[in-house]
Amino acid sequence: MFRRPFRLLPALLATVGAALAIAACAPAPPPAYLAGPVPPPAAPRDLPSAPATCDTRFRLANVSSVPVALFFFSPASEPNWGPDQLGDRILPPGRAMIFRAAYPGPYDFRVVMADRRTAELRQVDVCTVLEITVTDAGMRASHVDGAAVARAAPGARPGGAYAPAPAPAPYVQRSTGTGFIVARGAVVTNRHVVENCGRIFVRAADGREVAISRPTRTDAERDLALLAVPGDFGPPLSFRSGPVRRGEGVVTYGFPLAGLLSSGPTLTTGEVSALSGIGDNAAQIQISAPVQPGSSGGPLLDRQGQVVGMVVAKLNAARVAARLGDIPQNVNFAVRHEEVLDFLRASGIRPLIGPPGGVRGERNAAEVGEIAHPSTVFIRCER
């Protein structure tokens, strides 16, 4: 990339054409300092090794136990942080991304973690920085030839340490739902479970609870949402590799009617009744396993303990009875596991897939529940 306008020789203009000269001399579109992520290099040696040419690429590496939810960087002279550079993505623990600043000079950096802690680094020289590393203690910058670590923000904790999470707001209205772990640091649930929440609490099977400000990605059409949680929140569930069949036995696991029924998870069993949802919705299947409010977002598992769907809704029996004069029994619906897999892959998540043909041997419902338990989470939405 050229850093400043240059003069082309007449012979070069004649050979290449005036269009190249115009493109080379045109100013960068605003905001010039936010070039965004670039494809990662093939190996670490592809990163800049010397500041002579001021290669402004740098790696953002997350070696902490919590996903990075938001990432900002801008020239130190700018008064504002600008937009979140991760967009609709997250940076899970153990992963890294490559970014490029458009101009040389000192930059400021800021991360917001999934647990709402924030950390900043100021006056980082992008001509010498190789990596911005996010740890459980905060942020640090690694430079070419062992240059000095960047200074922390004025008034901030030394060395880019985390600031305390903001005090919780006095939210009062609540709704609850279920979710399940699909990868390290990632929970999936229904979008309607976390929609318009001022604050989201996710509780693991071991009782740990974290607060989340917002989902990292949602899909309104499929009614799906992705949440970032600590990397050790629980083991991910495995998805079936093949399609589900009509008449197949299934198990649900979740937290229906929290506060009225048991505070712990509830297991129900049933069968796949139909291979489409209301109005022949091909993204859903119909199941006979009983579900209640609060079951939404929970895993639907086959008798091998593999995910074949996500509980999403139940038929409104009162409305159907008022219209048809009969009360429907156990007509409930789940999002197909293929739809959940497509959503996760589009979000950069690599879910576990079971072996072709499934797992040998059918488990009983109790055994399936033991598989689901450490991976299923309780979700509370406060507004």
What descriptors fit this protein?
single chain, 12% helix, mainly beta, Thrombin, subunit H, disordered N terminus, 383 residues, seven-stranded antiparallel beta sheet, six-stranded antiparallel barrel, Immunoglobulin-like
Helix-strand blueprint:
Elements: H1 10-16, H2 18-25, E1 37-38, E2 57-62, E3 68-75, E4 96-100, E5 106-113, E6 118-125, E7 129-134, E8 139-143, E9 174-183, E10 186-189, H3 191-194, E11 199-203, E12 209-212, E13 217-219, E14 224-228, E15 238-239, E16 249-254, E17 266-274, E18 284-287, E19 299-302, E20 307-314, H4 317-324, E21 332-336, H5 337-346, E22 352-353, H6 365-372, E23 376-382
Parallel strand pairs: 2-7, 15-22
Antiparallel strand pairs: 1-4, 2-4, 3-5, 5-6, 7-8, 9-10, 9-23, 10-14, 11-12, 11-23, 13-14, 16-17, 16-19, 17-18, 18-21, 19-20, 20-21
User: CATH topology of the largest domain, what is it called?
Assistant: Thrombin, subunit H
- In spatial order, strands of the major sheet run 12-11-23-9-10-14-13
Major pleated sheet: 7 strands, antiparallel
Separation of the first and last Cα atoms: 48 Å
* Radius of gyration, taken over Cα atoms and rounded to an integer in Å: 25 Å
Number of domains: 2
Q: What's the CATH C level of the largest domain? A: Mainly Beta
Poorly predicted runs are 1-51, 147-158
Classify the helix fraction into a percent range. 10-25%
Principal-axes geometry comes out as elongated
Q: Do you know the CATH architecture of the largest domain?
A: Beta Barrel
Estimate what percentage of residues fall within beta strands: 25-35%
- Specify the number of helices: 6
User: What is the number of beta strands?
Assistant: 23
